[in-house]
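User: Here's a structure from my thesis project, written as structure tokens. My advisor, Dr. K., wants to see whether a designed sequence matches the one we expressed. Can you design one independently, without my sequence as a hint?
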């Protein structure tokens, strides 16, 4: 523990925040690198230039943020604070895991940097001495199963991020999904979280389109992850999220088309969908994308739209196309 304390003390303040955020995940949970960096950026852990009043970031600023995130990730690996996960294509880490000893150290050092479902289910609701900034709910934790966002919403009005850990990929879950609706069926809880920046509900089986009602009120939201959920439609009001940078809709098999109002967003940089989802042409005319995947191309006109997107988007780093 003394060695860990020395290593932790040597980290810069932003890198300390990036490391502490990893306590959101359970031991040996496979954390994908790219989504992690996107959340680090959305949380503000990676310093950025003040773009208020200037609209979109420049290409240089966007690349700098991403490169800084990758540098932080690689530094944590080199310091042996996280364990890299590789694929079979090259020697570049595509993710990481956190050893149990490291995780224990992070949680003991964080000073309530992250609040867990177990804290809420045990009755330790935040008082004047404890403001919940980040909430992690694990559907594979027995204590978290008793937690519903409805029961905790009154205590979470200052929360900045909510992360729900879903099932393990490739393994069928027998656990019930966490409850995200209100006390009355169909009630949305989103208006309760005015200050939220990261909302990651990936693989939350109980999530339905009606639960996104009122999402336009989350004016500070930067990261919306609803991959692997049962939503079949996005509200038109989603276009009013002026700060949204990441929209992750992968593996939403019931979703067939995106609302054209998304084209109103000036800050959207990462649009992650599956190839079967129809994308209105107005969206493909947006210029601030850094990553778009996967666009289904089934006609010459759609192909020309994708080529135009490549031509206009100076910041584009990743483009996925399904022919």
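Assistant: Designed independently from the structure alone:
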């Amino acid at each position: 523990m003394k060695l860990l304390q020395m290593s932790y003390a040597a980290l810069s303040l932003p890198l300390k925040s990036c490391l502490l955020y990893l306590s959101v995940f359970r031991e040996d949970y496979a954390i994908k690198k790219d989504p992690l960096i996107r959340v680090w950026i959305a949380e503000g852990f990676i310093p950025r230039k003040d773009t208020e009043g200037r609209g979109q970031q420049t290409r240089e600023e966007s690349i700098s943020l991403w490169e800084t995130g990758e540098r932080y990730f690689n530094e944590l690996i080199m310091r042996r604070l996280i364990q890299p996960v590789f694929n079979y294509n090259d020697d570049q880490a595509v993710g990481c895991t956190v050893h149990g000893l490291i995780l224990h150290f992070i949680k003991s050092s964080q000073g309530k940097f992250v609040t867990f479902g177990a804290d809420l289910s045990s009755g330790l609701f935040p008082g004047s001495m404890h403001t919940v900034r980040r909430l992690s709910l694990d559907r594979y934790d027995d204590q978290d199963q008793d937690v519903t966002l409805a029961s905790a919403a009154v205590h979470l009005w200052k929360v900045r991020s909510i992360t729900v850990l879903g099932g393990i990929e490739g393994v069928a879950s027998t656990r019930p999904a966490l409850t995200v609706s209100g006390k009355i069926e169909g009630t949305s809880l989103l208006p309760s979280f005015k200050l939220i920046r990261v909302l990651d509900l990936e693989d939350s089986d109980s999530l339905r389109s009606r639960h996104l009602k009122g999402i336009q009120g989350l004016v500070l939201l930067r990261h919306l992850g609803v991959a692997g959920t049962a939503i079949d439609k996005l509200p038109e009001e989603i276009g009013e999220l002026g700060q949204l940078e990441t929209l992750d809709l992968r593996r939403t098999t019931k979703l067939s088309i995106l609302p054209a109002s998304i084209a109103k967003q000036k800050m959207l940089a990462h649009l992650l969908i599956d190839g079967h989802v129809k994308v209105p042409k107005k969206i493909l005319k947006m210029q601030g994308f850094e990553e778009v995947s996967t666009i289904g191309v089934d006609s010459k006109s759609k192909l020309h739209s994708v080529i135009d997107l490549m031509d206009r988007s100076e910041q584009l780093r990743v483009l996925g196309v399904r022919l």
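When you compare it with your expressed construct, this may help: The CA atoms of residues 8 and 179 lie 36 Å apart.
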